[in-house]
Records
---
Amino acid sequence: MNKKRVELIKGDITSLDVDAIVNAANNSLLGGGGVDGAIHEAAGPDLLIECKRLNGCETGHAKITDGFRLKAKHVIHTVGPVWYGGYHDEHSLLASCYQSSLAIAKEKKIKTLAFPGISTGAYGFPKDLAALIAVNETKRFLTKNVYPEKVIFVTYGDDSYETYRKLLDQ
Ligand code: AR6
């Protein structure tokens, strides 16, 4: 895989001018706090109207909407697992979030896709392990597929930037 296909930045995912940003949503897809709240706030009320039509989303799965007032054209909503100590399939469910989001990006021929750290806030997934899963699943997918052309990992107000940096440099 070409290293230029993966980028790492610090900041607010809602400000990015990309084809799609990924939302760390919940099963209802009707909004919440954290990055979900920030995305709904920035996208405006039409996002909630579209989300209501989707009838929720299972953990580990993903669904796409328009980006409305965001610079991003689309939002891919995925539902990460709540961390219960690692004995409830959390690892494979988080891997499935990345796989499902990347599969939608492929299907829609999305060129640039940005991920926050799914499950690493309110859902309590350990950040180092979550970053490892994010990077492994993304690299594996990009090796086999042309779309998305580029994936951007977005870290926000914490120390996971260095964790991602080390993983991406390997
Ligand atoms: N840009 C980029 N990353 C962000 C931003 C932002 N604007 N805001 C927060 N983060 P969380 P979860 C990071 O809690 O753990 C919601 O209520 C944050 O630092 O948003 O998957 C949903 O509705 C953290 O690393 O998502 C669900 O109920 C990461 O985003 C629940 O929280 C994820 O933190 C989902 O919990």
---
Amino acid sequence: MEVIITENYESMSKLAASLIRQQLLSRPNSVLGLATGSTPVGTYKELVRMHREEGLDFSQVVTFNLDEYLGLPPSHPQSYRYFMDENLFKHINVPPGNIHVPYGHAESVVEFCAWYEEQIKAAGGIDIQILGIGGDGHIAFNEPGSSLGSRTRLKTLTEETIKDNARFFKDEAEVPRFAITMGVGTIMEAKRIILIANGKAKAAIIAEAIEGPITAQVSASVLQMHREVVVILDAAAGSKLKRADYYRWVYEQKKRLVPQMIGRM
Ligand code: F6R
């Protein structure tokens, strides 16, 4: 696991976007795994800028989003599909038919989840997966206790997640209680993973996930078992890491001697 502590939200976002650009330049038909939430907004902004100003091409890209609230149609302003359209898809040249976001209104959730897993497989698997992290350590909506081998399925959100996400809704009662989410096992099959986190509120859970034991109680901790993960933080989110000095030293050496290896272990 490579841990990079950057100065601030902007540098975190720019570095994450530059790793995605590298991936697209080396494989224009890459399969991208995407997250929603406030953390990746800056990364998406930077990708949109790269598309507009540098011609970064998404015409062969295929995307799979991590999750969606159950019961929210794509037109609902708080649905993750809506979020993705507004923050990324509308502004780049990814073909609409290549976009996959779990469908919150699926008639049969069980059948939908199996279909979603098949689609990921049929696309050749996810080349690079972007993740945020919840205050309770969730990745996608894999709340504490999620099986580390879990697949795409229905999850009940914790009260903590409902409270955290209430900021996007009129009030807490409006936050859906369920979501369709890729499983931990699904995420672990991505070839590369970029986890991004910013702000003081994420510092304690980041320290637990990166330097604590691997446990289903902190879903993100299983990333320690993945062979190609880069965790990109701002200074606040990295402030409780015991080995922060070491991570900074590694990053400095890489920038100076092997910049092409940043984010590549
Ligand atoms: C969203 C997702 C969630 C978020 C996490 C952090 O698709 O999968 O796991 O990444 O809840 O959310 P923010 O970025 O809003 O702090």
